[in-house]
Write a structure and sequence with these properties.
Low-confidence stretches: 1-6
Number of strands: 7
Radius of gyration: 33 Å
Structural class: alpha+beta
Length: about 270
């Protein structure tokens, strides 16, 4: 697009390209620079240690750095093959500086509409990505703190449950030691086995609830999942609160992280 006419428009466009914060590069099908603005030259030299120039091959310039040469060739190769895309990638020699860039590639054509290369507009987004990661870390820390708070609500009821399970074993062992009739011993042993299963289930539920893990949305049966939470909710609330669930038939599945859903429900109820 030209403002004014002829050479004035070209000069204005060149001034705009040189004055922008974007790193602009134009390359032919042979990976040779057709044009490159000062910002791109400076950044290329800063992260790779070599200064590009029009007419030079970017692959030849990085021949002594095969790892970086391959990374540059991988992204530019897609553009020079005719693909238009936007991508965020990390480039640079770690000994100098390694940065992340948001790169927009477009096809370069001649006056006859023939593809002769590609051009790139790139922006340094390293700090933006770091800020986003810090935010994700803070959100994860908050979720974990909420889980710990919720676990604090669970401990009283769980401790009571485990005391009851231990009582089953204590009473059962007393009966066995007293040489109770075989039929009674069998009933006691069966009760102890149920107590073991119950204790194992409680432990598994607590570990699953408190474990630090990545978000994992999945489709769940809402009614079945809520009914499975009844005992956990009952243990978390005061003894004078009765947990009742009235769920419609045919509820749609929902896609959600089951652990986060449990945490949300527990926090609301508590």
């Amino acid at each position: 697009y030209m403002v004014g006419g002829g050479g004035t428009g070209i000069m204005l466009l060149a001034d705009l390209v040189e004055g922008t914060d974007a790193m602009v590069q134009v390359a032919g099908l042979d990976y040779r620079w057709l044009a490159i603005n000062e910002a791109a030259k400076n950044e290329f030299e800063r992260i790779f240690g070599v200064r590009p120039r029009v007419g030079a091959s970017m692959l030849d310039m990085l021949a002594s750095q095969p790892e970086h040469q391959a990374a540059v060739k991988a992204t530019w190769g897609r553009a020079l093959a005719g693909e238009q895309f936007v991508e965020i990638g990390e480039f640079g020699d770690a000994a100098r500086d390694r940065r992340s860039y948001e790169m927009r590639y477009n096809i370069l054509k001649n006056r006859d509409g023939e593809r002769i290369g590609a051009y790139q507009f790139a922006y340094d987004v390293t700090e933006r990505l770091r800020d986003q990661q810090r935010l994700r870390d803070a959100e994860e820390a908050l979720r974990q703190a909420q889980k710990m708070d919720a676990l604090g609500q669970l401990t009283g009821g769980v401790a009571h449950d485990f005391n009851n399970l231990l009582a089953v074993f204590a009473n059962g062992l007393q009966l066995i030691e007293r040489n109770a009739p075989p039929e009674q011993q069998q009933r006691v042993i069966a009760g102890m086995r149920r107590a073991i299963a119950r204790g194992s289930g409680l432990t598994h539920q607590l570990l699953a609830f408190s474990r630090r893990r990545a978000m994992n949305p999945e489709a769940i049966d809402l009614a079945t999942h809520l009914r499975g939470m009844r005992e956990m909710l009952t243990r978390s609330l005061r003894g004078d609160i009765d947990v009742r669930m009235d769920l419609d038939d045919g509820l749609w599945p929902v896609e959600i992280d089951a652990g986060e859903f449990d945490l949300a429900m527990l926090n609301m109820c508590v």
